[in-house]
Amino acid sequence: DQQHKPHRSQQYQDRRSDVLLTYADGEGKSGQFYTSKYAEVNELSAKSIIAPYQFSERVREKMGAGLKPATLIFLDDLVGTGRSLTKNLSDFVEENEGLLRELDVPVTCMVLAVTSDGDESVRTAMRDFDWLKFDLRYVNLVGPENQAFPEGIGIWADIEEKERAKSLCRDLGAHIYPHNPLGFGGQGLLINFSVNCPNNTLPILHSPSRADANRDWHPLFPRAIH
After folding, report:
1. Phi, psi (5° rounding) for residue 16?
2. Where are the alpha helices (DSSP H) in 14-79?
3. Alpha-carbon distances, residue 25 vs 30, 53, 83 (angstroms)
4. Cα 11 to Cα 44: distance, rounded to the nearest angstrom
5. In the list 3, 44, 134, 224, which could disulfide-bond 39, CB 3.0-4.6 Å?
6. Which of 15, 23, 11 is nearest to 195 (CA)?
7. Which residues, in sequence order, are CB contacts of 27 under 8 Å at separation 6+?
8. By three-state DSSP, how is residue 142 classified?
9. What tens digit of pLDDT does each residue of 161-192 get?
10. How far apart are the first and last CA of the chain?
11. How far is the C-alpha of 42 from the C-alpha of 15, rounded, in Å?
């Protein structure tokens, strides 16, 4: 009986394939994971996911088969300082400039969380590609509640308590990341994702002490090393 067939079966057959999806980081990292999740939740074809290292080649193959791309979406988890994403995006655009100019479609970077500094850094850098229809979208803006040591008191009872805690985290963090004891960029974030813990987060939360350190440390949220 036609009326008793599952409604979603038709939706699965009609999944959009004109939305191109890729990720800012490498294979097996969080960007690739969230790209797959994004495609599934938004009912996009899995064939829409294209690895950045073979982007132009694969897209041209699809266009040769009749595909007319409508938009390109980059996915990542966190924009902390913005340095990593800026480099990945810039390298991608430079490498695929010919195709991107030809497509002339919106290019949107979607992330789960962004700091205000990271947001500004990425947008400023991407202005160098003034021909590109670029935008950065995010789910959450990182606030003082997501930072161990923001301006002001933050999560601490008073400034004295905050400074004591910061000193302790810096001392412990030096046994993990000597050059970034409070996390990459010194941001000291309090953020952890189900897939991995960002390196902008306090090192004591995600990484063990170095083998040559004189103090042993085991983190609550071990960070995957690629």
Report:
1. -65, 140
2. 30-41, 55-64
3. 8, 10, 12
4. 10
5. 44
6. 23
7. 51
8. coil
9. 999 999 999 999 999 999 999 999 999 999 99
10. 51
11. 9
Amino acid letter for position 32: Q
Alpha carbon 204 to chain centroid distance? 21
Alpha-helical runs (H) found in the chain: 8-13, 30-41, 55-64, 83-95, 97-103, 116-126, 159-173, 203-206
Q: Which residues contact 152 (CB under 8 A, 6 or more apart)?
A: 144
Q: Return the closest-CA partner of residue 197 out of 178, 218, 220, 180.
A: 220
Alpha-carbon distance 51 to 61, whole Å?
A: 14
Number of Cβ within 10 Å of residue 89's Cβ equals 24
Q: At what angle do helices 83-95 and 55-64 cross, to 10 degrees?
A: 50
The angle, 0 to 180 degrees and rounded to 10, between the axes of the packed helices 83-95 and 116-126 is: 20
**DSSP output for 186-223:** G--B----SS---TTB-HHHH-PPPTT-SS----SSPP
Report pLDDT digits (tens) over 41-90. 999 998 999 999 899 999 999 999 999 999 999 999 999 999 999 999 99
The residue written with tokens 């590109």 in the block is 132
